[in-house]
Amino acid sequence: MRNGLSQEAFGRLLDHLDTDRGRAGERYEDLRRMLVSFFEWRGAPFPDEHADEALDRVARKIAEGLEIRNIGSYCYAVARLILLETLKGPDRWRAPMVGTDVVAPADVAGEALDKEARLACLDGCLSGLPEESRSLILGYYRDDTRGRIEGRRALAERLGLRAEALANRAQRLRDKLERCVAACLGDMNTPPRHY
Prior knowledge:
Blueprint: H1 7-17, H2 21-41, H3 47-63, H4 71-87, H5 105-127, H6 131-140, H7 148-159, H8 163-188
Helix pairs in contact: 1-2, 1-3, 2-3, 2-4, 3-4, 4-5, 5-8, 6-8
């Protein structure tokens, strides 16, 4: 197996994908293609190797006993972290050229990495919420146009809550997510961990 991945860990990943090994293999290949595309679209070098690394990390986590509800989302979050690790480097901190109004590529890359990091952390924090809480927060902030009020009214009715109670729950969940994202970003500023 690749990078010291044990046969047992790989087998557990396949078991997690499907109880039928044939269908599990198909799902594995689908996931791998999705991950390769993810890295290709973002211009990462060696997208095949990064996709394999993401799947290996997920397999190790499953072998360690991590319960993963949505393996596709989890693989995507791991891929985002690998992308950040890949793009992180000495060029990221390069200072802009003196006497020019042109933004240095390192600054643009740094901003993109910061945004990517925030999104990866938010995805991870959202996936850690119970399904009911995740549905509530996503439903509450789904629409930021004129339909928002009507959408929130419908959400409150569906959950059997008053509008104020829905707003309070959404605010508590938002506060929790903000703390989770801040902690995640703090962890990203330490040397990369392998997931």
